[in-house]
Amino acid sequence: MAVALITGASSGIGEEFARQLAPTHDLVLVARDVDRLRQLADQLSTAHGTRVDVLGADVSTRAGRTPVLDRLTDPEHPVDLLVNNAGMGYATGATQNPVDDEMYMLEVNAVAKVHLSLTAVQAMLARGSGGVINVSSVCGIAPAWVDSLYGTSTATVLRHTEEMAYSKALRASDVKVMALCPGDVRTEFNDRAGIPDKTDWGWVDVTVLVRTALADLRKGKVVSIPTARYKFLSALMKLAPNSWSKLYGYDLGRQHPEIPAAVPQPAARP
Predict the structure, then answer these.
(1) Burial class of residue 61 (count of CB atoms within 10 Å of its CB; 0-12, 13-18, 19+)
(2) pTM of this prediction?
């Protein structure tokens, strides 16, 4: 049976990928919360007869990523699909948060994903097949509009994915890479970040998101954007130059005065 490795699998988008892939894949679930991973692993193995391995890892450091890198490059136990999902965010902006916290987010959201993705791609090219889903965001498509490195980190992942997908090496192979760019998804992400729910119109159901992503990967799409509304918004954002940001950009922290600026709220650390 094919094997899928999923980072940030203990909740939210990563957990939903695990649930939808379990009927057809053996799984390697990666996160820091090992107890929660084991509970999910027991559920999925019981329900589907799937082999589910649990791998505790903190992808925020090179040393912490080592167990995941080793698993991705193990020639005797190849990984057919990497779902590069672990990520986090803050409710306050980079101008208010401690610099170390912002660098931590950049390491988790960008450096770790590029590191794991590139490692997986090279191993898959050597075998001649495989797939990678890098979870980015519509924020990575948008021009600069908010004082946060979250957009910077997701834009890095999106650009990296496109560069790999359009390279001659991948176009000549059966290896597929795709960036998934969700909008607002109903998961624990916003709750952990302390970001209040503002509207209902933009929410995407996580089940629909993951189903769309897996279908788009099979179709060979390079970028997957869920729902017609986000496809439309993304098309508009691509047309807006960064120079317009001064007309509508804002200080993220000022949008949430109930959250102390000096105490950034992390979300979904892997």
Answers:
(1) middle
(2) 0.87
